[in-house]
Amino acid sequence: MRAAIWGVGAVGGFGCGIADLASALKQGASPVKTVRINTIEASFDAPGLLADTAPLADRVDRRFLRRTEHLTRIALLGCLLASEDGRRHNAPEGNRRGIILGTGYGSTCNAFDFKGLAAESDIRQFSPISFSNSVHNAAIAHIATILKENGPGLAINHFDMSVPLALMTACQWLDAGRVDSVLVGGADEYSRIMACHRRRLPAPGTPTTDPIIVGEGSAFFLLTRPTDRPPPYGYIESATTRVMNRQPPEPVGDAVYFVGVDGFNPAADQHARRIGKTAAVGVYSPLYGQLPAGTAFDVAVAALSVKTGIVYPSVRGVSTVGEMKAAQNLGDRRIHCVKPGAAGEWGIVSLADSLTCATNGVKSD
Amino acid sequence: MAIKDKIKEIIIQELDLADLHPQDIQDDDLLFGDKFGLDSIDAVELVFQVKANFGVEIRNMKEGRPALQSVNALAAFIEKRLAA
């Protein structure tokens, strides 16, 4: 179940494109913006790592974007960037392309914006355009239409497991010969509900405070079956979710671990601290923020690491027990992107370059 | 704000025609002709927006078809209902 990575597209608080992500990795920070949150109780300003979709204007006719909402635009921009990156690397041509979006929140942010969502409201007071964008598969439908792709399209909602499941499905589609390539990735938009939740956490400086703030964005990948040519970003060896009764996966062999510590699930933090004592651990969530589809960004960082041969220093900034404080050579090590789910499962996406695959004889799931 | 100006604002903002300015919409322009590229989904959204912004309900196709012809027609429809 191995898939070649030919293109990477990412947009988020760090900027737009893989070069901006690489730049943020080197600087160890992303610019934080302010979001005005209005609740029944009060209005307040919350920090956010926000995605700017303005670059779509250079890529897509404005008329086609007219009825798309923010989640669709974020995901569309990620898809376009991955596709452009694939062309730059002369990705294998194919007629059949699938699109898969993993999203934890899906279109719920849009749904919460429905006017008169309160219980006493009348269904006839809902905006039809807002309603149509709240449908589960709306983003993929818009993206497929705009990109003129007529292959299979799928949206996967499984909160933190959405991205591993999306990548696993993409690999299965390629394995089965259902498609020649897949644009697959994760996207989530800024959740004002999570911003409210984080506001109730203890003040900065207290031991339980996690500084990672709410983010949004997308990271997409252009995948194909392995060919004679080595792909620029290596291979996805496996992508899976494992129900492990809340027990984290044990480190195996000489590998690098990117742990999705985003302040939502303490298991991630505990896991990073524990395996950091014996293994190389990177945490990059401060660059993209807290969002269920965050694994997609860790996979993008892993793809960059495979391409450059460099593992970037961890940018978490707190509780750095065992985390990488300086860049390392990747060598022939694999990279495992790991994140816990809310129900005791773990999502694991493993990447390696072609040489590693050949010499280590890595078995796929 | 005058009703016609408000209608133009709704068309630009709620139907997301951000490359248009109010002065680009003439009062007697056909809303659902080639000029603006609006379609039936926009018509349904416009019906919703008229209810939300003016409290005026366009109840069926018989009312909607003439009322949604132009800014002039829609403004006249709204004024008539508000006066009733």
Task: Describe the protein in words.
The complex is a heterodimer of chains A (365) and B (84). Chain A is α/β, with parallel strands linked by helices and 365 residues long. Chain A has a single domain (3-360), classed as Peroxisomal Thiolase, Chain A, domain 1 (3-Layer(aba) Sandwich), CATH 3.40.47.10. In chain A, 30% of the residues lie in helices and 24% in strands. Chain A has 12 helices and 15 strands. In chain A, helix 3 crosses helix 6 (138-147). Chain A starts with a strand and ends in a 5-residue tail after the last helix. Residues 115-120, 203-209 and 355-365 of chain A have low confidence and may be disordered. Chain B is globular and about 35 Å long. Chain B contains 4 helices and no strands. The longest helix of chain B is centred in the middle third of the chain and has 15 residues, at 40-54. The mean pLDDT of chain B is 92. Chain B has a single domain, classed as Non-ribosomal Peptide Synthetase Peptidyl Carrier Protein, Chain A (Orthogonal Bundle), CATH 1.10.1200.10. Chain B has 84 residues and is mainly α. Chain A binds chain B through residues 62-63, 65-67, 115, 124-129, 132, and chain B through 14-19, 37, 41, 44-45, 48-49, 51-52.
